[in-house]
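Human: Here is a favour to ask of a fellow structure person. Comparing notes only helps if you start from a blank page. I am asking you to supply a protein in sequence and structure-token form. Write it directly below this note and I will take it from there.

Assistant:
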Amino acid sequence: MDKDTESQAISKLVFELTVSTGFSADLDTLLDRLFGILSLHYDLPLEPRGAILLLNPRKKHFQVAQSGMDPYWKSSFQWDMGPFANGTISETCLLEDMELPAPGGTRLTRLILLPLRIENHGVGYAVLFAPAGYQPGPAHMNFLIDLGHALSGLVNRALTLETLRVREVELEDARTNAIRALGVAAEYRDNETGWHIMRMTNVAQAISKSMGISEAMRELLYIAAPMHDVGKIGIADSILLKPEKLSPAEFEVMKTHTTIGVTILTGNDPLIEAAREIAGSHHERWDGSGYPKGLKGEQIPILARICAVADVFDALTSTRPYKKPWTVEEAAAWIVSQSGQHFDPEVVTAFQHAMPEIVRIRELYRDDIIDPKQELSLPPVEHAKENWVRWSDSLSVGIGVIDEHHRYLFDLVNDLHDVVVHKRGARNVARLIKALEAYAKVHFRAEESMMGYYHFADIQRQENQHHAFEEKVQEFYQELHNNPLVAQFDILLYLRAWLVSHIQQEDAKLRSLVDA
């Protein structure tokens, strides 16, 4: 292959790879296409398999893409030996014979390592496989070097696209956090714990999933639901905080929190519109007897109808200065009795179907100090059949509520793994890391409150480990900016190792509270 032919070949290859993968950040597709093209057009003695390895900030290689090979979570390859041991990236193509796993044992194989460099900085390798001892001639070697340059550019493009998606999430978060802050501010005026918002929002989510509401609508609901009572900011303390039943005149003033909320939430953004509909209509009733407009049936926005059930259920089952909490069974029975009157029958049916998850939510976001000796009897909740981190009875610490918290953290980690495995992108990875970080704080603070109340001896050690975990998750989130493809794999391995070891080595000691 002369120089002109070689240049034409690499140009054609880059063009075909670029066209075939479009603007996708899916490096698996890139490698599949690469080997398809090589098998048709080039005479290199390469095996039809390969991988892309990228470095994390701690100089460890992660297999972030592959073709003809097992993915990282099934692979027996150890990318920490030989040329991968020191975390440095060569400036030119490397050839390395290594004993690698093969059917029935191991096999000596020549690895061709194409350095991936971005702005003259080594970020990883593209790994190709050839027969042991293979030595490419000058034309082939030049081709491989040029191929490494081409792959570097495509990997850079994928990193750039994923980084932009992470930043989109951050911009959205900045906006939604500002909106949520208003809802939380209103909530804290008449509910000092603020847990009502978290429970109500998650119950609304459970109902919406049971109804088959689209993912986009569920996302709007999750962000906008905390704004349902934002108008209470405009209600006088003498009415909002009154411990007794309101007089008819006072109740008329209280009802204006719906119209105040509509006034506050001005704008044409879909999120603001959803929040405005919920704030203005969650006290409307299916039969038209609600307020502020007396809307009836499907005149009431669907998200407001869902929030109405979630809001009333949590209010009934929560302690208030003027009432004792109803049992879950009593509250659920009353809501069912109001189907077709107060509530949308379809929403009530979905509420009934979602009860196992709703009961679980009440334990995950509870107001009171956890009682170590409380026995939980929760309805079974369907879990994924294949889990990245699997719960077993051996992980139980003997405290029902804490065990349920741990199972939920496992669910979040498995959701994150599912997003990574199915290549749903850094945008969704970022969202799940934020969700996991938020619930870890809920769990840690609840656990610490219990330990403090019952004078657990190792509380300081636990608090230190909790804060270290929170800082580590935040560190991974920041790493998504620099190399989102690596960070998502990195955090999965960390989460699985940390959660299991922390439960086995630290939380297991909480059993002493049960026996006290």
The chain has a mean pLDDT of 87. The two ends are 80 Å apart (CA to CA). The chain is about 55% helix and 10% strand.
